[in-house]
Amino acid sequence: MAESNQTLQPAMLSARGVATPLGKDNLLSVIEALLEPLILALTLWGIAFYYEGELLPPYMILAVIAFSLTFPGRASLGKPFWKVLADIALNWCWIAGLLLLLGFASGYIRQFDQHAIIAWLWIAPLAQVAGQGALRVTAPWLLALQGPPQAAIIVGMNEQGVALADRINATPYSRLRLSGFFDDRDAQRLSGSDRFTPLGKLAELPEYVKNNRIQLIYLSLPMASQPRILQILDELKDTTASIYFVPDMFITDLIQGRSSNVCGLPVISVCETPFTGFNGAAKRVSDIVLSILILTLISPILLAIALGVKFTSPGPIIFKQRRYGLDGEEILVYKFRSMTVCEDGGAIKQAQKNDQRITPLGRFLRKSSLDELPQFVNVLQGRMSIVGPRPHAVAHNELYRKLIKGYMIRHKVKPGITGWAQVNGYRGETETLDKMQARIDYDLDYLRNWSLSLDLHIILRTILVVFKDNAAY
User: In angstroms, rounded to a whole number, what is the distance separating the alpha carbons of residues 470 and 464?
Assistant: First the structure.
């Protein structure tokens, strides 16, 4: 066939809609989204009927709050069951702790029967475990309800095509069955040739699709191959297969990659903040609520530390240092002064083990992270978040942004009091470039995978780290 002179338009590549996410069937997705929230609400209602004899308004309100905090439920079918158990335990500790804290602080807990609350605290997580186990047992049957697996092929045996194949093959509870690849290139130029063998050349593709009832075709070809892609699309018009385009950036380091549109044309974000729309509002509301609660509870501790800093060494109580915040804008971050100096210039030396600049009280404050407590005020100001990449001094930023690729991407979100890197062993001094690189890797991983449940997980782990970590000086 002669080459087409058409221009490949984004709309042509997305005309068939968005594919069902790998590893999740539509029915299973709905069940996973509703399972945990419904279990919490229904167990509470059942307990209310048992202890109260009826469903009183306080129980209905609490059930709605619990449902809202956990909806949509986490996708757990792709995880090992032991990790699902750990997630249930961590998330329930956080949710139950938050609800109890709010209940005691507001006095609302007096509206409930004490025995009913205690029963819910242990029945709810056990019911979640049972629900997740039942879902795993019934998942194959639920998938069978949707019909036989959908046969798929990948056009283009390159890096992103092989990565997609590995993802399909490694994803449990998926209705996709990979038949293989089609590619015109010689075997030595193909990625993954040690594991996959092409089914044929591109010219053989339409006939194979028709004869083998292929339902899904993923085009993993470079955008530079527009004429060849157009030719393939034209030849496949005689089939009923759904066709999707795997962009070149499939294997690149996407930060919150998602589809959108600009003036009606579809685009794919390569580097974006996770805190847009509802996510941004949820993040900000959780920061405000938790900061107010925490500052109220720790106000006596703040006063005691302030007096201790004032009377144990000369200098200000609060140390203000310039840091980079959202979008790389400079902000002032508050800390209790823990050193005899207040460095904020063009060259700042990180605190080290046995650093002589650290005061005796400051050593304890830094070890326990109590020196960071004034940053909850920064959170209320909107300069920081409770969870996010830890802010570095401006001098350190200017140094490392030249040495570490992607360093400044961490500033697409507000800096945090604690972060994913800190609970994974990168708290305190980063005396080598490798350690700073590892910290940045964790920060970027947080941006890619952010969720409210991840924030809660980090906060819980931070409490444990503060008590046992030896990395802070």
Answer: 12
Q: Is 149 left (phi over 0), alpha (psi -120 to 50) or beta?
A: beta
- DSSP bridge pairs for 267: 260
Question: Rounded distance, CA 92 to CA 421, Å?
Answer: 23
Tokens of 82: 């032991």
Tell me the mean pLDDT per 10 residues along the chain, length 473: 40 36 56 88 91 86 86 79 87 86 83 89 92 87 77 88 84 81 85 84 88 86 72 78 72 64 55 79 89 91 91 86 84 85 51 64 83 92 92 81 81 90 79 84 89 88 72 48
Ordered by where they begin, the domains of the chain are 10-18+147-252 (3.40.50.720), 26-145 (no CATH), 277-468 (no CATH)
Amino acid at 101: L
β 242-245/150-155 pair status: unpaired
C-beta atoms surrounding 325 within 10 Å = 22
151 neighbors 177 (Cβ within 8 angstroms): yes
| DSSP letter (8 states) at residue 428 | S
Beta bridge partners of residue 268, listed in sequence order: 259
Non-local (6+) Cβ contacts of 32 within 8 A are 24, 72, 73, 74, 75, 76, 77, 135
Helix (H, G, I), strand (E, B) or coil at 64: helix
d(CA 120, CA 45): 10
Chain-centroid distance, C-alpha 61: 29
**Which amino acid is residue 55, in one-letter code?**
L
Sheet with 216-219: list strands edge to edge.
176-182, 150-155, 216-219, 242-245
CB atoms inside a 10 Å sphere around CB 336: 23
